[in-house]
Amino acid sequence: MFYRGNYVDGGDGREMGPKRQRILDQPTSFYGASAGSSFMYNEASPYAYAGQPPFPVVRLRGLPFDCTEADVTEFFHGLDIVDVLFVHKHGRFSGEAFVVLGYPLQVDFAVQRNRQNMGRRYIEVFRSKRQEYYKAIANEVSDARGGSPRQKARARSYDDAKDSAQHTGVLRLRGLPFSAGKDDIMEFFKDFMLSEDSIHITLNMDGRPTGEAFVEFANPEDSKAAMAKDRMTLGSRYIELFPSSNEELDEAVSKGR
Predict the structure, then answer these.
(1) What tens digit of pLDDT does each residue of 29-72 get?
(2) Is 25 within 8 Å of 82 (Cβ atoms)?
(3) Which tops the pLDDT comparison, 24 or 237?
(4) Which of 56, 79, 100, 253 could covalently link to 83 via disulfide, CB atoms 3.0 to 4.6 Å apart?
């Protein structure tokens, strides 16, 4: 299975999630007035809150094996999703995930989604703890460092497929921070001539970012050269790049309208 940053292919063609420590992207709008002054985010630590209220994380079980971050965000529509960490066992997606929410009060709303459906499967939602989330991160990082030769070979095969893909001048970005704007993407590709009109951040039906975007380059040669940025970081996230097409771009943009 492939992981953002350290990718490993699970054999079924599905990206299973990042094998790295997830540093939370937490816009200040997720905190403060929405949750009351006692929940004010403490900038001294990316994981700390003044007053130390409960860490806003839930655990999901029973997820479809083709589940994506966008699916989880849609499942919790109306709530602020700060991070989604998919859990893997023996190199395969376990059907579980940890979801960090914008502030502690949202946990009460999240657990109300317990046994609601995602596609044809009902999803179990449990309250969780900071320590459980951190342990899951540590396990993901540990597995990434100790990938088997078979997993590493599959990862190389996946990279070769990217390298040989035909370029049309359009790249798809995956793994963007939900707070990322067009100016952030322009800075990420600062070596190329881009305009805001050439960047398309995809949204779900609620108008929220999906973590994906499409970028139109001046020509196929530029988009191929830009693939050198694959798995580099934007903020605290590894960004994965894919050769794409105008047809895929048009379809993705139309879904968010």
Answers:
(1) 333 333 333 333 333 334 444 455 788 999 999 999 888 888 99
(2) yes
(3) 237
(4) 100
Q: What is the DSSP string of 173-233?
A: EES--TT--HHHHHHHTTTS---GGGEEEEE-TTS-EEEEEEEE-SSHHHHHHHGGGTT-E
Residue 105 burial (10 A CB sphere; 0-12, 13-18, 19+): middle
* Strand, coil or helix: 139: helix
Q: How many residues does the chain have?
A: 257
Best CA proximity match to 189, nearest among 157, 215, 220, 154: 215
Spatial separation of the C-alpha atoms in residues 87 and 65, rounded to whole Å: 11
Instruction: Mention every residue, 6+ apart, whose C-beta is less than 8 A from residue 44.
Output: none
H-run or E-run covering 99: strand 92-101
Distance of CA 173 to the CA centre of its chain: 11
Strand partners, 125: 60
How confident is the model at residue 253, as a pLDDT? 81
Q: Check residue 149 and give its pLDDT.
A: 53
